[in-house]
């Protein structure tokens, strides 16, 4: 368990808890601990889905600017690999993931949220990519994941201006998927994640892989990815259990083993 990031598991749902007072500034240590938490969540059979949560005050207010300001060009060239590695680790987690966003999700914090499958936000949350105001650009995936999520024009507007987006605008442009009162966001995210407990883990992993990998390629290549993932599931016990249950009892009644 890391000093600032920990994986908490309850009833099949893992919570990657960001906890670096006061605002969860994402320094290098925290980035490494996020990678470790993602890897642990991915390999644990008792984790069906993952919530990323920064606590009641803030999701994450961004990277640790004091740490980065002291870096030379040579330093940042090396550090930039870690900046992308920690969000890549979250995006690559082969289970359903959801961000529970309270307070600020800015810069690197917004990039963490972008790396999850879906995003639930408090109705008073603020999101944004304000790096331009520091004379830089997003470096942990923001230019790429934001444009894929909301489209290039909206992404350029947010990145060029560095402006903060309130929760209602974030919902309108597709940056977040659901709004809830601040004191309910985490519970709603856990509720969403809980529906996958006892589900067909390998099929969920395959679905996530097919969607994410398919977005990076042309349609015909994407269809080949889908075909391969689809056919591979016939090597699983869950495929047999699901189809046998459907034939005998109708839909939605199968018991899956995750194998």
UniProtKB/TrEMBL annotation:
PANTHER family: (7AS)-7A-METHYL-1,5-DIOXO-2,3,5,6,7,7A-HEXAHYDRO-1H-INDENE-CARBOXYL-COA HYDROLASE, ENOYL-COA HYDRATASE-RELATED. Its EC number is 4.2.1.17. InterPro entries: ClpP/crotonase-like_dom_sf (IPR029045), Enoyl-CoA_hyd/isom_CS (IPR018376), Enoyl-CoA_hydra/iso (IPR001753), Enoyl-CoA_hydra_C (IPR014748). Belongs to the enoyl-CoA hydratase/isomerase family. This is enoyl-CoA hydratase. Keywords: Lipid metabolism, Lyase. It comes from the Bacteria. It comes from Aeromicrobium ginsengisoli. PROSITE patterns: ENOYL_COA_HYDRATASE. GO terms for molecular function: enoyl-CoA hydratase activity; isomerase activity. One of its GO terms (biological process) is fatty acid beta-oxidation. It catalyses: a 4-saturated-(3S)-3-hydroxyacyl-CoA = a (3E)-enoyl-CoA + H2O; a (3S)-3-hydroxyacyl-CoA = a (2E)-enoyl-CoA + H2O. It is an enzyme of class 4 (lyase). Transmembrane segments: none annotated.
């Amino acid at each position: 368990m890391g000093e600032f990031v920990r994986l908490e598991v309850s009833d099949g749902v893992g919570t990657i808890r960001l906890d670096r007072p006061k605002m969860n500034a994402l320094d290098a240590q925290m980035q490494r601990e996020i990678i470790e938490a993602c890897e642990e969540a991915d390999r644990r059979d008792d984790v069906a889905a993952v919530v990323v949560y920064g606590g009641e005050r803030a999701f994450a207010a961004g990277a640790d600017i004091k740490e980065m300001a002291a870096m030379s060009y040579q330093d940042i060239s090396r550090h930039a690999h870690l900046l992308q590695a920690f969000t890549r680790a979250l995006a690559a987690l082969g289970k359903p993931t959801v961000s529970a966003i309270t307070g600020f999700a800015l810069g690197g914090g917004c990039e963490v949220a972008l790396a999850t499958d879906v995003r639930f936000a408090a109705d008073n949350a603020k999101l944004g990519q304000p790096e331009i105001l520091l004379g830089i650009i997003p470096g942990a995936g923001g230019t790429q994941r934001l444009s894929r999520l909301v489209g290039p024009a909206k992404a350029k507007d947010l990145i060029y201006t560095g402006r903060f987006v309130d929760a209602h605008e974030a919902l309108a442009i597709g940056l977040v998927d659901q709004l809830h009162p601040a004191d309910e966001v985490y519970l709603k995210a856990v509720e969403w994640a809980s529906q996958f407990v006892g589900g067909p883990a390998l099929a969920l992993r395959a679905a996530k892989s097919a969607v994410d990998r398919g977005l990076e390629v042309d349609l015909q290549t994407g269809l080949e990815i889908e075909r391969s993932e689809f056919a591979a599931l016939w090597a699983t016990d869950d495929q047999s259990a699901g189809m046998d249950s459907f034939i005998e009892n109708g839909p939605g009644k199968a018991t899956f083993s995750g194998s």
